[in-house]
Amino acid sequence: MLKWAKRKSQAGRVRKLPAGSECHILTQYSDHQDSDLTLEEETMSETAPLVAGRGGYGATPYNPGGGYPTRSLYPRVSIFASTQDDGQRPSYQGGEMGEASNASSPLVDTATLEPELQNSGFRAGIAHPMISGKKSKKKAPHSPNRQQLNHAPIVTAEDARDALLSHVSQHSCYGDTTAKEMTIHDLKSSSTFHYILETFTETRSTAWVSKPYKGQPIDRPNNGPAINPLDIPVNTPVMFLPGKINLEVPHTAVMKSCHKCFGRGHEQCDRCHGKGGEWCKRCNGSGSETYEEFGERKLRDCLSCSKTGRQKCSPCKDSGRTKCDVCCGCGSLKCFTKLTVVWRNHKNEHVVQKTPLPHGLAKTVMGQVAFKEQNPRVAPINHFPDQQVKKVSTTLINKHARDFPSEKILMQRQEVRMVPVTQVFCSWKDQDHSSFIVYGFEHKVYAPDYPQQCCCGCVIL
User: Fold this and answer.
1) Would you place residue 447 in the very low, low, confident or very high pLDDT band (cuts 50, 70, 90)?
2) Sheet with 50-53, edge to edge strand ranges
């Protein structure tokens, strides 16, 4: 639909139109006479609101899911190629790293910068952050079809007695009379669930660093626009193994004179203060020393300085100058933006049980893997027969989604180990209410109240 209108040439005021409304784009003319203006009718979607301002109208790019937006690494002027965000970028932080100790010192004088960086408003010596935007709101994936759980093996009374005898034999002071003569009344079998959740994340940060220039190639900004650090491809290491890598951001390097030695490559020796040596401490610079012989004081040549009165300065080797520790004697520095990529593995675990067995013991024995899943995003275990495991799974998954806002989640995995636990109720002599626990496929025993724990099998009263 086309409409016609008339309008005088003037600077337009900025106004924001509501999403979903019709936007009429006016083409302005620079002459002083009124003229007919073509009016085009255009309906914008809710995801691309239109902003009217000086010089016409323009729609802001649609950012799917409100993910991490593309920002400039340097302030004021963007020298990065503009790319559309896919909502799956890692977070980006600046100022963490400093390859050289002088990263916070005045590395670059504005007058010594390359012309292309002077014109772009480049601020040197600053770690420029990439501020992450709002995280994309993603729904949790639907739970896949998961297999049924198998039953744990049952421990019999004979198995329980053999496990206790094996446990007693591992302690030299324990007596085995109780294990042989006790009467087993009841066995109560159950399962202890060991839940493990791991989240593998990636974090990227930048820092303005320098290193000695030894003739290596310089990837200057005039070679092309600098790549956004979030778009630099990096090979991901083995999943769920921590790692770290440092890279140079392309097209950000410049060369400058060393700010510490002013391009000379050397400094005045701190020990001799540039004198090329120091007075002999043994003869105080006289070249001779006194000694006593048969009660008489005599002079002889100083053995330390060989009659010269001066000693060599070991740091500068009598030259009075030492190599600059910033540029390593090169006199020039290569300054660039360093990208640091860090991979972390966040792990949480929880033990669900209904017996007096300590939680730490259930983690150390073999069990049956009842459930195992690995996905970019895992869903809570909603098919598990134990309600406590369901609750723990939901709690930890929500915790991992909340606790790492500045990190990109690459992969998650969760696992439930089922450890068989059997509580054995028994009696021996006058002790009618004794019990011990057999746990794990190895039939480990937890018996803190075993009667014969002293030497020679004595009974603790």
Assistant:
1) very high
2) 15-16, 50-53, 56-59
* Pairwise CA distance, residues 129 & 393, whole Å: 35
Which structure tokens are listed for 365?
A: 């024995």
Residue 138: count of CB within 10 angstroms of its CB: 13
CB atoms within 10 A of CB 134: 11
- Measured CA to CA, the distance from residue 177 to residue 200 in angstroms comes to 52
Record the tokens describing residue 218, joined without a space: 């310089």
**pLDDT at residue 273, rounded to an integer:** 82
Q: Which two tokens stand for residue 298?
A: 């005599």
Residues in CB range of 225: below 8 A, 6 or more apart: 79, 80, 81, 251
Give Rg (Cα) of the chain: 38
Rounded to two decimals, the pTM is 0.61
How many Å apart are CA 77 and CA 225, to the nearest integer?
Answer: 12
Say how far apart CA 226 and CA 252 lie, in whole Å. Answer: 6
What per-residue confidence (pLDDT) applies to 147?
53
The band of 456, judged by pLDDT with boundaries at 50, 70 and 90, is low
Cα angle 122, 128, 133; round to 5: 125
Domains of the chain: 2-60 (no CATH), 157-199+343-457 (no CATH), 266-333 (2.10.230)
Confidence of residue 146 (pLDDT cuts 50, 70, 90): low
Per-residue pLDDT tens for 18-54? 444 443 333 333 333 333 333 333 333 333 333 333 3
Encode 191-224: b = buried (16+ Cβ within 10 Å), e = exposed: bbbbbbbbbbbbbbbbbbbbbbbeeeeebbbeee
- Cβ-contact 403, 207 below 8 angstroms: no
Q: Maximum distance among all alpha carbons in the chain?
A: 125
Which string of DSSP letters, residue by residue, matches 424-456? EEEEETTEEEEEEEEETTTTEEE-TT-S--SGG
